[in-house]
Write the structure tokens for this entry.
Amino acid sequence: MPILTPTFTALLREAQFTKEMLGNGATQIREANYASKGVYFQAFTSLSTGLERIGKLCLMLDHFIETRGTFPTLREMKRQIGHKLELLYTRSEEVRRRRSINLRFTKDLSAPVHQAIMRVLHDFAEGDRYSNIDILVGGNSSADPVARWYREVDMPLYEARVSQRKKDEIAQNARMADAIMGAFSSVLHTSETGDEITDFEDGSRRTGVWKAVAPHRQLAVLQVIRYWTELIGQLEHAAHGIPGEHIPYFGEVFALFYNDDSYLKTRKTWEKV
């Protein structure tokens, strides 16, 4: 006789898949740079998919609690919300306020950097992921998600979180590298914003900027993930009050993300526990 209900099994599998997507995205977003732009697209795909799924799990749990044991319809989840991450966040905030849920770490996603991350990932899921194809086939004009991330997430983080001393060091190292290698090297690349990189100093400086900002961008992404990790954990407790063994322990599945900033800063890779 089966012990686990089909509902329990489906929710557990969805949560496990979502956790892996979020872990992959959190790792990839630290590695992405102008020389490996494909990693940006991998990160954006993993993060937008993972955040969409954990956000929908939260709304499904809220509906399950409200109705004493039923889930929302396909129309509500797929057609009304779809890939709209910003709408998912709005709905999640409504749930949090209505249920008087106080989150321990990331209270909400109102900080400018979190809002910028959500905008870029929302638009990526809604269509910007096809920006390169749109150029080739003359489709609707889509913004370049890598360029947007650089301008709206990385540069504000670089200006706010990286010390002037470190910025001066990056510039000095780039000049020294160019003095040593510039006369013997040929450079032709494109930056995150699509500008050509034609000299060694520019390439070296951009590498330094990436290394300086990468930990800060990863932490900000993890804070966004942690928001929904906390919310789903709170909703899980209420859902366990509904008769029937239907709800997994989501807090255990997503436990890796339920930590304070000091711990989040110590890890570079998030694919595995």
